[in-house]
Design brief:
By secondary structure, this protein is α+β, with helices and mostly antiparallel strands. It is built from twelve helices and ten strands. It has helices spanning about 10-25, 40-50, 70-80, 85-90, 95-105, 110-120, 240-275, 290-320, 325-350, 355, 360-370, 380-390; strands spanning about 125-130, 145-150, 155-165, 170-175, 190-195, 200-205, 220-230, 235, 280, 285. Strands 1-4-5-8 form a four-stranded mixed β-sheet, covered by helices on one side. A four-stranded antiparallel β-sheet has the order 2-3-7-6, with no helix packed on it. A hairpin with a 2-residue loop joins strand 9 and strand 10 (about 285). The two termini are about 35 Å apart. The protein binds flavin-adenine dinucleotide. Flavin-adenine dinucleotide binds near residues 95, 137, 208 and 219. Flavin-adenine dinucleotide (FAD) binds near residues 128, 208 and 380.
Length: about 400
Amino acid sequence: MDFAPSPTLQPILDKVERFIRDEAIPLEHQFHGSFCAMLPALGKLRARVKELGLWGPQLPREHGGMGLSLLEHGQVSERLGRSPLGHYLFNCQAPDAGNMEILISHGSDEQKRKWLGPLARGEIRSCFAMTEPEFAGSNPTRLGTTARREGDEWVIDGHKWFCSSADGAAFAIVMAVTNESGGEYGRASQIIVPTDAPGFTRVRNISVMGEPGDDYASHAELRFHGVRVPHENLLGHEGAGFLIAQERLGPGRIHHCMRWIGICERAFELMCARAAKRELAAGKALGTKQIVQSWIAESRAEIDAARLLVLRAAWTIDKVGLYEAREQVSIIKFFVAGVLDRVLDRAIQVHGALGMTDDTPLAGWYRHERAARIYDGPDEVHKMVVAKRILKQHGVSA
Ligand SMILES: Cc1cc2nc3c(=O)[nH]c(=O)nc-3n(C[C@H](O)[C@H](O)[C@H](O)COP(=O)(O)OP(=O)(O)OC[C@H]3O[C@@H](n4cnc5c(N)ncnc54)[C@H](O)[C@@H]3O)c2cc1C
């Protein structure tokens, strides 16, 4: 395995790094969990990204993107992760990136024209509605939302929550049970639901870690009361909902993990700069204390290990396939989320009271990224997946 950027990728990475440093980071002081107020400024920067030929690094060229492999996009994603605005500016933000992927793989020509095209051009946004308040989201085969067939239509009833970016989204991809007797993995389907369909209600944007969230930064509770959509809005075939969700989450976890590594690198730089500059006594910087040195050394080792694990998983998906990379993907999901948690915590500690303010991005990331250990599968589920597969080779079936 060779993770060195190719001669064609390196200049792209340099360009992305410069853009984030010179254009995105200077805007960050305007971002306090709210996107609405920033949309005009962000729109201008998105246009600049297009001019620079950096739009949609993960998207195939025929859909207006850069056509990078997962491994290459992972390396871009790390650079973007250095700013909370990075992925949005390049149109590779969750949940749109995942929705674009599944529309490319499973969408009909008409679905691609109607939904994928505008999404890939950045004209609209979308959300993904799977988790429900009434059922444990850790086991997504259990769902209460149903879609029944009536003539040429699906009629959807149900309740969802934590639908990221639903506020302002043009459509939701909704997981709903379409066949009760389809078995654990074949009961549900994915259906495209325009958010202006009668019966679709955004109940509220849920406040998360003290941030109300709006527009792209929202996590919404949704209700579906007899929502009718044409039968053609079914994504893929009936009963494929669970399979498509799994497909969506594989590359999605690579994107998230590389974004988190970008956050770790920026937090690490801030931690080191503060440790070098902050004097406890004349001529005695915080960085002369062994405990701070220990945090710096541990963070360096953990971030480097995390990056190698994620690049290995991306390489395996590119070269061998998602199925073969399943264990690696579960490993990175819990490992990198843990590294992120610890590096942010240490960086905040080194900053003292300043670390608790929003004068640096650390506190915002600490609030926002605690969820990394929960969404896309909590730590415990991924650890269980890894351990079960290993123990199976030792004759233990749990
Ligand atoms: C910020 C954020 C954004 C999100 N965005 C979306 C989105 O866009 N769309 C969407 O559909 N969902 C989204 N989610 C929901 C997310 O996917 C779920 O929260 C997640 O799947 C866990 O489900 P749950 O919250 O119902 O927890 P539960 O399933 O109730 O689990 C609670 C806890 O139980 C433990 N646990 C679970 N299973 C096991 C096990 N097998 N062994 C041991 N312990 C276990 C874990 O510690 C877990 O945290 C988001 C969540 C957050 C926090």
